[in-house]
From TrEMBL:
UniProt enzyme class: hydrolase
Annotated EC: 3.6.4.13
Catalytic activity reported: ATP + H2O = ADP + phosphate + H(+)
Domain Helicase ATP-binding: 37-208
TM segment ranges: none
Domain (DEAD-box RNA helicase Q): residue spans on this chain: 6-34
Gene: deaD
InterPro entries hit by this protein: DEAD/DEAH_box_helicase_dom, DEAD/DEAH_RhlB, DEAD_box_RNA_helicases, DeaD_dimer, Helicase_ATP-bd, Helicase_C-like, P-loop_NTPase, RNA-helicase_DEAD-box_CS
Organism: secondary endosymbiont of Trabutina mannipara
Name by which UniProt lists this protein: DEAD-box ATP-dependent RNA helicase RhpA
GO cellular component terms, A-Z: cytosol; ribosome
Stored Pfam families: DEAD, DeaD_dimer, Helicase_C
GO biological process: response to cold; ribosome assembly
Amino acid sequence: MSKVEKYFSDLGLKAHILNALADLGYEKPSPIQSACIPHLLAGRDVLGMAQTGSGKTAAFSLPLLNNINPELAVPQMLVLAPTRELAVQVGDACTDFAKHIKGVNIVSLYGGQRYDLQLRALRYGPQVVVGTPGRLLDHLKRGTLNLSKLNGLVLDEADEMLRMGFIEDVENILSKIPAKHQTALFSATMPEVIRRITRRFMNNPYEVRIQSSIKNCPDISQCYWIVQGIRKNEALARFLEAEDFDAAIIFVRTKNATLEVAEALEKNGYNSAALNGDMNQNLREQTLDRFKNGRLDILIATDVAARGLDVDRISLVVNYDIPLDYESYVHRIGRTGRAGRAGRALLFVENRERRLLRNIERMTKLTIKEVKLPTAEILSSRRLAKFADKVQNQLESNDLNMYRALLAKLQPAAEELDMETLAAALLKMAQGERPLILPQVPNNKVPNNIKRRILRRNLIDRSRGSRR
DNA sequence: AAAAAAT
């Protein structure tokens, strides 16, 4: 393309879409948007690949919504997503984009939500359906959803939707839509094995791959820490204390671990909660809402939250358990550095997981910087600074007089004491269970005799494994 | 090898 598109109004979108964009404060399309929108408007299949946070949702939603016939009260556009929360988010985005198109209804259909709500929404004859595969198939079987007039199909997080476990459901849904339809596949990652499969689903697609560059790469500074000396949950508390963050998301490997880590953080006084696929859907949505609107600072999640979620408060991602594949890493850290903000990503690596770290570095073509555990000095000075802030706040409050009176009553009991000694005693009491002067971090070095013992144990384990 | 996705 020789012409460089500058504004949404240059892309061929109708006025009502442009008005919605203006309301939302969107001016200029991102590279993936300006590359894809004209082709999708023209009805062509598109395979869109661009890094996280680059505006893929709008890239497929805007042109497909633009081409909807509002007079026809049947599903014309369907978006499939790999998690329920993502289905909700994409549905909400479409509702925003379509708010000036008269007569267009949008519904999100996903598991765990009451049927009566979904059935009522379906009776309005929505032109746009966003959903997760299981519940969509359920509606198709019950005959409460009819996709026989569908024009546009989108697989959001396409590589995930075409993986084992999902692809069967996706193919099943595809068998219920007209053979002649437009397909859009979007993702930040596209492993070669899956890329080959995409050909089965597309007809002469226009392929867009937006390479990361200084200009369009999200600003995420990445580092790792080799687990050493102390347990991961203690290390997490230390890192969090040393870090300035708005909201943080901690990724763990298992659903159980979300609960364990959440509990440990709660004990440390953090405002945190777990998110995993075993929780009931109301609680899942409520937790995510609290996280979005700032009533929750830390979310501890499985990969249910790895893809697509757009929460611009997130300034820190911690990979508490290293992900087993590099795609998961890319999506996880992509939860930060959104909407032009900067983000930090910290990765915990156990010694035996170094291979996974090297793999991530090789695939992302990045060198991730090693960091050390925040020292006792750093933490002490931060605690002291926070404490000083609190004291300052008290000094500025105007209810201190009654405590002055109290001070006078305290004085006879400590007749020999000067005010400074008294202040020191009160300070000692006030610090409570979080000492303002921390003991030194335990020595990171593992003694040699212990090392030999670990080595021997590993060798025994391995020989046992090979005999089986 | 875990998690996700209908009940």
